[in-house]
Every structure is written in structure tokens, then in C-alpha cells.
């Protein structure tokens, strides 16, 4: 695979000391053999060799997945590989110092966006603890990427991953760019219709290529609802790799060869691969400045 002018908008970073026993205990419900042993800065840089830019963020999923990283890890990776990485902060609204950490991440560490997993932290998007987060992000032109969709973790309330919950927040904060990761699987139709209705809501296809039938139906629905211009490329590394994510998209129609089923168009595939969040997720400012 040769270098392409596309961005991986969903890359997880952690060091070995951030991995808790709970993580290994739950891997049976993740793809067998698909997990990279590491997801530190050097590992990510090698994996992203054929990606122009990678948006990276730490996870604070200690009590659900078993990964408890921090924004300093993200900032250190950006400092080491500034030509490759763009860092996002992580917010956990359960913490009393949530806003203090967020302000530090943005104003001191110079991280350019925010990641939040409502299903992983057990905090609904409508929770009042998130109000100062939304207000700060909207005021400071900072996009919010959210894990929307299900997960394998037992301690993760499924309903909090439903994309329908994004719409009221998008309406209340119309200048806050919100990005639904994983197309909200398996509720991808909710993700698609919310994104179509709300100008400030986008979505991305990370970690979908290894469920090809679901992935095919997602992309067909996105074409029919005409939202393919709001879908961005991502991997969710280390849960999926760059090459398999690209190949999974480009070969999505193989499974329907010989049938009369509709095809994912070449235009859709190329539009996703060439998507550039830096021209859509921020309001005019250059996030790389």
C-alpha cells in the first residue's frame, strides 16, 4: 500500500503500564488474534506509515475495558511525532477534576479535540456533568468524538451507546462538532439519520471492516440517505489495522458478486478514504497551528 493523503481519525494510545488485568480477561469477546500487543507511540507510528495524519487519544476505560491511560501519554506521542499525530484529550465526567483536566489538556498540552465514551464510563450524553464540557468545547472550537455503538465490555450500559442520544445534544449546542465513531453499530441507521438531520454531526467507519455484511449494509444505507460526504476514515487501532481497514472498504462488494444486490460505489469508497476531518471538524481555524 502506498502513501495516501488520508487521515486515520480514530487511533487509541496506551503504554503497557496502563493495561489492567480486566483487559486480558475480556479479550475472548474481541476478534481472536487481532489484537496488537502494544499501542504505544512507537508502535502507532510504525503502523501509521502509510497514513498522512493520525488522530490519537488515550482511553480512561479502567473499570469497563481495563485500559486507564492519560492525556500526558497522548501529548508525549504528539511531541515525539508531530508530523504524524494530532492529539485529542479524553474526558471522564465522573471525575471531580474533569474540567480541570480538560482545560489542562487543551490549554497546556495543546490537544486539538476530545474523545468520550458514554457507554464505557456509564455516563449518558444527557448527564448534567457534561454540560460544562459541551459549553467549553463549543466556546473553544473543539470537536467531540464519541464512541457510539455497542462494546464487548460487561460493565458498559448498552443504551448509552445509541446514536439517538446524540441528537438532543447536537440541537442544544449547534456549534459543537460531534463525531459518532463506528457508525453507531449495530444502530447504524440511527447514526445515519441523525447525521443527515444535524449539520454539526459527523460519523466514521473505524472497526467495521471485520464485520463485512454489517459494513456493506451500513454503506448502502449511507448512500441511500446521501450522507457519504459526512463519513470519515478510521481504524480503531489496535482493534483493527490500517491495511485491513483500507482493504475491507475497497473489497466490500466482493460478498455480493453474482447477485442483484446494490453496490457500494467507487465514489463512496474513495470519498471515505480521501476524507479530511481538518476541513470539517473545526470552524475555520487550523487545528495544526
Automatic annotation (TrEMBL):
Domain spans labelled Amidohydrolase-related: 7-277
Keyword line: Hydrolase, Lyase
Keyword rRNA processing: no
InterPro entries assigned to the protein according to its UniProt record, in alphabetical order: ACMSD, Amidohydro-rel, Metal_Hydrolase
GO MF terms held by the record: hydrolase activity
Position of the signal peptide: none
Superkingdom classification of source: Bacteria
Entry protein name: TIM-barrel fold metal-dependent hydrolase
